[in-house]
Specification:
about 260 residues, alpha/beta, globular
Length: about 260
């Protein structure tokens, strides 16, 4: 039987900002889902339930500021916006009554998870990193520029509006910073050496937003890693190759402490 999720809840940030949140039942150290740059709770679709079912762990997802039904941040993203999000992780854990968590981050969420593990090593029991970024590749810049054109010329705004209260603000906040010349030198490689948590690295070989060089850079710095490369898979393996991702995650977390 698939675990049932709670009705929508609210997670309150320091300062009082309420974020959309949902959780799926289980036991042991929970898995926290950190979504991609255009993601939200709803955009995980049925993946959290499958993950909770196969791992037996609680699964918790929330929509960052400006995503889903969460209110927007006070201004545009700056180049350190993922660092800011990572520094919120202890507050999230404290509010949920969680001492340590396994962080599952997709794309931007993967970068945030890495930073959180570097900043707060005692709070992170494991990392599952799906298409993470640790430096800016030209393929990512080109793909994001292409996504901008799609947003201006296709039904992408209408599709994102199914999952976000403020799709235009959310899209341009993300797109503008990634195409900002200041962001070209962005990297988080210097923080990787401070990470102690074991990590599962997942990447599709046909990912239009990044190459396997991202995983190579992470493996060069982390001491405990496992790697899953999915041939022909794009930027969202949890959606395009869900069964393979769920199986790999279940095996990975099964080796961690309960």
């Amino acid at each position: 039987m698939m675990p049932t999720s709670s009705d929508e809840e609210r997670l309150t940030l320091p300062g009082g900002t309420p974020l959309e949140m949902r959780r799926w039942q289980g036991t042991g150290t929970p898995i926290l889902l950190l979504h991609e740059g255009l993601g939200s709770v709803a955009m995980w679709r049925d993946f959290p339930g499958r993950l909770a079912d196969e791992t037996g762990r609680p699964v918790i997802a929330w929509s960052r500021r400006g995503h889903g039904t969460s209110p927007p941040p006070p201004g545009p993203h700056e180049p350190d916006y993922m660092h800011w999000e990572a520094r919120l992780i202890p507050s999230v854990l404290d509010q949920l009554g969680i001492e340590r968590a396994i962080l599952f981050g997709h794309s931007d969420g993967g970068s945030i998870a890495l930073l959180a593990a570097a900043y707060f090593p005692r709070r992170v029991a494991g990392l599952i990193l799906e298409a993470p970024h640790v430096f800016v590749e030209q393929v990512a810049v080109d793909a994001i520029a292409g996504t901008r054109e799609k947003y201006l010329s296709s039904d992408l705004p209408e599709r994102l509006a199914r999952y976000h209260d403020r799709p235009d603000e959310m899209f341009w906040r993300w797109n503008d910073i990634w195409l900002d010349p200041r962001f070209r030198s962005w990297t988080i490689e210097e923080w990787l050496r401070d990470i102690r948590a074991p990590a599962l690295l997942i990447q599709g070989t046909a990912d239009e937003y990044g190459t396997l060089a991202q995983l190579d850079r992470i493996e060069a710095q982390l001491s405990m890693t496992k790697r899953l490369e999915l041939d022909g898979c794009g930027h969202s393996p949890h959606r395009d190759r869900r069964d393979a991702v769920v199986a790999a995650v279940a095996a990975f977390v099964g080796e961690l402490s309960p």
